[in-house]
Amino acid sequence: MPPDASVDDQAAANVVVIRTARRTARSGALWGVVFGGYVALSAAGYASLYPTPAARAKLADSFEANAGLAALVGTARHLETVAGFTAWRSLGVLSVAGAVWGLFGATRVLRGEEDAGRWELYLTGQTTRGRAAVQALVGLLAGLGALWAVTAVIVSVEGSMSTVRFSTTGSLFLAVSLVAGAAMFMSVGALAAEVATSRRSANGIGAAVLGASFLIRMVADSSSNVGWLRWASPLGWCEELRPLGGSRPLALVPVVMLIVTASVAAVAVARRRDVGAGLFGGNDAPAPSTALLSGPATLAVRLVRPVAIGWFAGLAVLGFVIGLVAQSAAAAISGSASVTSAVERLGGHRGGAAAYLGIALLSAAALVAFVAAGQIGATWGEESAGRTDNLFVQPLSRRGWLAGRLAVAAGLVTAGSVITGIATWVGAASQDSGVGLGQLLAAGVNTAPPALFVLGAGALAYGLRPRIAPTFTFALVAWSLLVEFAASVVHANHWLIDTSVLAHMTPAPAADPNWSAGAALVCLGLLAAGAGVALFDRRDLAGA
Amino acid sequence: MTLALRVEGLSKSYATTAALRSLNLEVAAGEALGYLGPNGAGKTTTIRLLLNLIRATSGRAEIFGVDCQRRPVEAHRKVAYVPGEPSLWPQLTGSETLHLLGRIHGRVDLAYRDVLIERFEFDPSKRVRAYSKGNRQKLVLIGALMTRAELLLLDEPTSGLDPLMEVAFRECVHDALDNGQTVFLSSHILSEVEALCQRVAILRAGQLVEVGTLSEMRHLSALTVEADFETTVPDLTAVPGVKAVVVDGSRVRCQVIGPIDPLLQVLAVSGVRRLVSREPSLEELFVAHYGADPSDPSRTITDAA
Fold first, then answer.
1. Residue A221 scores a pLDDT above 50
2. Residues sharing a CB contact under 8 Å with residue A14, sequence separation 6 or more, in sequence order
3. Binning pLDDT at 50, 70 and 90, where does residue A70 land?
4. Which residue among B73, B90, B127 places its CB closest to the CB of A396?
5. Which of B183, B188, B91, B178 is nearest to B141 (CA)?
6. What is the predicted pLDDT for the residue at A408?
7. Out of B86, B104, B124, closest to residue A391 by CB
8. How many CA atoms lie less than 13 Å away from A173 in the CB half-sphere?
9. Mean of pLDDT values over A474-487
10. 3-state SS class at B246
């Protein structure tokens, strides 16, 4: 045996760790930039918009007593300080974003690879099912480390600014708190990946746990009588960490316990189960249903159906919650400098609940645009897996197929926007907010044009460079969201703001929707989609 | 003669490689053509070009007179395709998949579909994700054959099938030929091509190196002679026309090109116990095209790739 053989063995045994770590760390570092940037912008924006103690006290008075906002993003504490505001503003949002990242990252590594048949290549090498699962978890941990490190560095740098002044330990603990959600749901995702029979259902299980955690946390934060309920939700534990002011490292105990328990359970299941199987055996021989199998367009509807149900439920909950808290939130933000300026910047003129709803529905618009981006990703996924080859060898036009596929996506987006509007009205009406169904339905539909533009731009990318089309489309939406957020806290350049697709919609119902602007966006999207369809007809297919 | 397939100067290049170089090929209606070549020779590229899944760099192809690249929809009406690595929707069951493919193609012989399901002993009630590789292959075979399309484009169609199912597949190809259909069979399983195809085209590194009937091609190659000797093995290397002599104990094997007379004269006086001569197998023809020594047992077709 050559002298360096043991070294090669070592590398072969750790291949899962190395590959997982490389992949997750890259995306962790990227998200660390987003996390850090969000925190830095929050702190800087607060310092510039509320420079005086009097302005800060006023903000604290109105926001801290506000049950609606508390339900949405968490209970506010010490809003009269940069630290308190920054922790409140970043923790609620980034915990959920991190949880989604961790969940999908874990199921991709621990189930997506297996679904694709690549996991077997590892398992036939120098490892076992259990050991490979441990190695994947170690690799994911490296990604988490990258997320924490990048976040911590940016927060520490921002924290050293004279207008901000966080302590070093405070900055580091804030980074820990922001990453806790990602860590917990990474382990939940790992367990779901072992228990479920496919990545798709693992994502479903994880999303259900996340949804339940969010709802419990929301109820707990809506009234101080039930504050103890926070301890029943992983997202509540994140809030109980209370970074940057009254830090409570003890709340890390349940966080760590969940991570350890779920990880150990995941490895235990991985050791026991067959490759390709789950704990709950899915039904592999269901009664055949030929509904929606009459042609390519109906097939697209059938394939999109489970995703659509998830999105519709998510948008309905989001709309309902926004509507529910509108009345009380409006009371809190009346006179708030940041909200008033944001509404005016976006062209809104109404105050009260309508102003709040106009701002809040921007986030719904971003989500609807993500639905559109997801459709471009799904279309490329079908092609790159070689499944569309089964269609394109048949007597059917490629142009017609893509046009039909995009029409299904556009239908999904439009239906999502209508559902958002109706759900918002249901929530708002239950609180007598005084904003009518017609107004909110229009506000819902108003979120569709940016998403339809994104769909068209994505289709053009798909016709031109399919491999990068999903990344491009998601990046377009993420960029728009970032620009909107930056513009809401600092005075941003007009040209920069115009690069955001979300900047081209009016914040209905704070103002009447600008339908001609919306129509222009949709027309641009249609033009781009048309070009994409023509290009698609003439390019090589990826296929297997 | 009606042409099922006419290919003229068909080429496909990628940034750095030429996957297919100026292919010229004609396949008559009702004929079965074997399309042979090692992995990476360009067999799948050819079929994907014919199906307009990828665009030709130059050249053209017609299926029953219909331009494959300009009028793909019309061309596809006459075609059924079987991929070697089927990728299907994992959430659909076998019967749902067949229903979908049938509806999209528009023409299905339902009675024949049931015959095929029985012949391949296929259980269509399961989800695709639960099928083995062989069962997925059966599914795409049934999906293509049930259309009774005029031209069957088969790209290594029996990969993953067991020998019994291989027999069922051959039966289906005979059905198709009896029915007047044309078969384009891409394969590297030589016995399969030998059993099913009258004509063979051999592709290597993107270039067509040989087209012809099997009997035509055999003339190009040597006769294989094996002899066992009572006593010592004579030296055959000097005999005119004899090549690739391999001695194994008291046994010798060689190739004879041209007249066999000189060899027979030597053998007649050397105490031959047993003499076998045979036409070269397709495999030997094939290996000959790749310059490998056909008598070297360590060389196989896959090695040649």
1. yes
2. A135
3. confident
4. B73
5. B183
6. 97
7. B104
8. 21
9. 82
10. strand
**For all residues of chain B together, what is the average pLDDT?**
87
Q: Which long-range contacts (CB under 8 A, 24 or more apart) does A12-16 make?
A: A12/A125, A12/A126, A13/A126, A13/A127, A14/A135, A15/A122, A15/A125, A16/A122, A16/A127, A16/A132, A16/A135, A16/A136, A16/A139
Domain ranges of chain B: 3-211, 218-304
What DSSP letter does each residue of A421-451 carry, written as one string?
HHHHHHHHHHTT----HHHHHHHHHTTHHHH
Parallel, antiparallel, or unpaired for β B207-213 and B199-204?
antiparallel
Q: Which pLDDT score is estimated for A60? A: 85
Under CATH, what is the fold of the domain B218-304? Alpha-Beta Plaits (3.30.70)
Instruction: Identify any residues that bridge with B208 across adjacent strands, giving them in sequence order.
Output: B203
- Spell out which residues of chain A touch residue B88, defining contact as CB-CB under 8 Å: 387, 390
Whether A395 and B74 lie within 8 Å, measured CB to CB: yes
Share of chain A above pLDDT 70, in %: 94
| Residue of B54 and A8 predicted with greater confidence | B54
Measured distance CA(B239)–CA(B226) in Å, rounded: 15
Residue A127 has pLDDT above 90, yes or no: no
Mean pLDDT of A435-460: 96
| Residue A430 pLDDT exceeds 60 | yes
CB within 8 Å: B74 and A540: no
Strand partners, B203: B208
pLDDT at B220: 63
Residue A346 has pLDDT above 80, yes or no: no
Please, which residues have CB within 8 angstroms of residue A495's CB and are 6 or more apart in sequence? none
Indicate yes or no: CB of B55 within 8 angstroms of CB of A538: yes
ipTM: 0.81
Structure tokens belonging to residue A39: 């925190």
Listing DSSP states for B158-180 in one string gives TTT--HHHHHHHHHHHHHHHHTT
Selected residue of B103, B152, B184 to mutate for chain A interface (largest A Cβ count, 10 A): B103
Distance of CA A536 to the CA centre of its chain: 29
- Strand order from edge to edge, sheet including B58-63: B18-28, B3-13, B58-63, B66-67
pLDDT in tens, A292-316: 898 899 999 999 998 898 889 889 9
Q: Which residues of A touch B106 (CB under 8 A)?
A: 395
Average pLDDT over residues A135-153: 96
Is B88 at the interface with chain A, CB within 8 A?
yes
Q: Is A285 in contact with B55 (Cβ distance < 8 A)?
A: no
The two most distant CA atoms of chain B are separated, in Å, by: 71
Nearest-Cα distance to chain A for B77, in Å, is 5
According to the model, what pLDDT value does residue B294 have? 35
The structure tokens listed for A501 are: 């697709």
What does the block give as tokens for A429? 């009406």
Asked whether the beta carbons of residue B130 and residue A284 sit closer than 8 angstroms, the reply is: yes
For the domain spanning B3-211, the CATH number is 3.40.50.300
Please report, for chain A, the start and end positions of each structural domain, with discontinuous segments joined by +.
12-280, 294-544
pLDDT tens for residues A357-367? 888 888 889 88
Q: List all residues of chain B from 108 to 127 with a beta carbon under 8 Å from chain A.
A: 124-127
Question: Shortest CB distance from B88 goes to which of A387, A397, A543?
Answer: A387
Distance from CA of B256 to the nearest CA of A (A): 44
Which of B81, B87, B124 is closest, CB to CB, to A544? B87
Cβ-Cβ contacts under 8 Å, A395 against chain B: 73-74, 76-77, 104-106
- From chain B, pick out residues whose CB is under 8 angstroms from the CB of A539: 55
Least confident of B55-69, B149-163, B253-267: B253-267
Of all residues in chain A, the one with the smallest CA distance to B106 is A395
Whether A293 sits inside 8 A of B103 (CB atoms) is yes
| Out of A237-246, B124-133, B225-234, least confident range | B225-234
